[in-house]
Automatic annotation (TrEMBL):
Keywords: Signal. This is Uncharacterized protein. InterPro entries: Quinoprotein_ADH-like_sf, WD40/YVTN_repeat-like_dom_sf. Residues 1-20 form the signal peptide.
Amino acid sequence: MRAILAAFLLVLALTYPAQAESKAPPTGCGFSSLGTLPLMGATTAGTAYDRGRVYSVTSSASGPALLAVRDVRTGSLIAERPLPLALGSWAVTVAPDHNVYVGSYNATAGAMGRLFKYDPDQDKVTELGIPVATETFVWTLAATRDAVYGGTSPTGRLFRHDIRTGRTEDLGSPVPGEQFIRDLAVARDGTLYAGVGSESMKVAVLSPDGKLRRVIEPPVRGPGFAYDVDVVGRYLLVRYSTNAGANPMGVYDLRRGTWKHLVDDVDSLTVGGGARGGDVHLVQSDRLVRLDLRTGRTKQLGMTEFGEGAVRPLTWLGDTLAGTTSSGRIWHYDGNRDTGRILDSTLTRQPVSVRSLATGPDGRVYAGGFFTGGLAAYDPATGQTQHWPDVGQSEGMTTHKGKLYLGVYPGARIYEFTDDTPRLLLNLGDQEQDRPFAMVSAGDWLAFGTVPKSGSIGGALGLLNPETGQKIIKRNILPGHSVVGLAYRDGVVYGATSVFGGTAVPQDTAAKVFAYDLASDTIKWQTAPVEGDLTLGSITFDDQGRLWGITPDAIFEIDAATGQTLRTSKHQTYPWDTLRVPVWLDTHLVFHDGYLWGKTQSKVYKIDRATMGTSLIARPISNMHQGADGHLYLSRNENFSTYRFC
């Protein structure tokens, strides 16, 4: 009864965000709320322009996201309106009647993407419901006088919302098997262009009723996304994001039905927003450039500083090009003077979800932020916090030889964090790696495990010696598997895998644990400890040298010398047979005072090693970590708590 009451009290504490303030650290036993960490930001992935106003959606850790209305010339904030049950949006468009439409996402398990309408004349937001019942994410919207079209994931559906009747119709998947419709564009005649991924990077050409007319093959090979799509005059512009890390943009002549130009390294989110006559304005290597669509020639312009975040050109204001960044800033480029400036952000910063937790070399608990990124630290001795905003999304963190190391998405970038500054040591984007969830100190080596880019398969085990710069990258160390959990003992790195890479298609029938011997550069053994489990997650050693792991539905014990699975116990169920999305790291496991403490499926358990029985301690929890003081530190969205042992 005491455990159930404690869990109930923790649910109450985590349901409503506490105030972000420093306070004396707790001294009692059990749970204590530590408020919120100072992870705040203004991330605005979805943005559109109309009649002197910029419409953008600021994401929020626990919601609701905010639709912001700003003056494009001054940057002043006109209004911010909540979007119920939305955490953020990539999809914002303005219809010819000047109503604004927003497609949302919600990262909560089982939550679906929603459609909203904002009437600027009445300053009113209306929720239009869930467009497609199976889809969690509305990635893109495009509007005509009669309808709003949307593209989704995880099954790449196209929908049509009739503006007059309010009816929304699922038009199916224009390219079956693709997980994403990443972007949409509508030509003047109503023809719809849908950029898909994550395999083929094709563009589907559809009639206004959603019927497929044809498919345009990309001018580049390999998996990835048709990431940005726009129509400018007679040209279709498609910016690709390939799994190899390249971002070329193709210029397709719609009259002749052929690719006319291919422009390398285009980084701007919108490829048609800076159109003027026969020119478009793009970003290459953090510099604004002008592209002549007829000749394919580019000219570098004088604006090279946009602040943080991806750049989105929007519209011309006379001879001034205006745009935004995904960090919420508005920028202006003066075409006469060939100079640019960035306006101060007026958006209300929103809480950022905690993505990862680790103990630093100074004994503080460090937290990495989701999406917006940022890094925060909490001192268990004093209760004081600190924040570094200019750090990317840390998927994993660990301390190695007195320094803190961060594994940052995208590109599986490894940073050394010293003197309040992240220093880039390694980037695995060119090897199709994206998410370094697993990190552990392994003797002289910093070891890390990765998940590949969306659309790719085959993660990696990486080894880096920060003192010498030597690196060893074992791509596909177990073919098709991602490496999502690591432990180290006596010269051997132990890894736990997921059979998912960057797709929702499992590459094996069960995830595995393996032992990699550093001295001999060989795999000593590999085993699948839980039949049918497609991801394993966190692994750890107890005080007797026994290797333990926890999956979404099982606990297992392995003989570290031989790889023999000694015991397995199911603690709950998991829908392995009906998964529509990849599952990577969703578990955490530590050993303390004779017991294992595990987090999985948003629950924290105390685990008896003798019986393998579990006792529920708390829910809902997203991250669990054991600090240098021996106590547990927990997070849910932006909220931060501790469980103190007595």
